[in-house]
Amino acid sequence: MGSLRGGSGGEGRNEDGGKVGLPALEVALAFPQATPASLFPPAVSDYYQLDDLLTNEEKALRKKVRAISEKEIAPIMTEYWEKAEFPFHAIPKLATLGLAGSTTKGYGCPGLSLTASAVSIAEVARVDASCSTFILVHSSLAMSTIALCGSEAQKQKYLPSLAQFKTVGCWGFNRARLWK
Fold it and tell me: Which GO terms describe its cellular component (predicted)?
């Protein structure tokens, strides 16, 4: 095991790039089952016949999200898994999915059904869980909080840019008052 590197971005890593006390990990070799979803064969069965429960619009959305996720997101994710980083440059690619705001209606949001929202996020998660989590926090926590609790002025100010991923939303919770 090598010594720690100093300087910006090197804290907590060995000379060989691994975390302190651990060897460097090349995901593709150490964890071959982490194959990008784009290499998976299509599902051959729908054991629970869930496909029959989807509307034609939901099936079309699922197909669109799967195609974009496999083409734009899957090819770059292994590199980011290995670096333990998030691909912020991929946010415009995620924006092309049209999922920001999911079930929120108006303000540039798609107004999806709960089923369409769940199916589309599952398709993104099929390729990469971090990207689906990013969309969920952005849409379901940040945007939904504004849509449900914000004033009309706040909705008009924030939701349109959030719906296009021009602004990235997050969500915080402070429990300090609960302990007094």
Answer: peroxisome
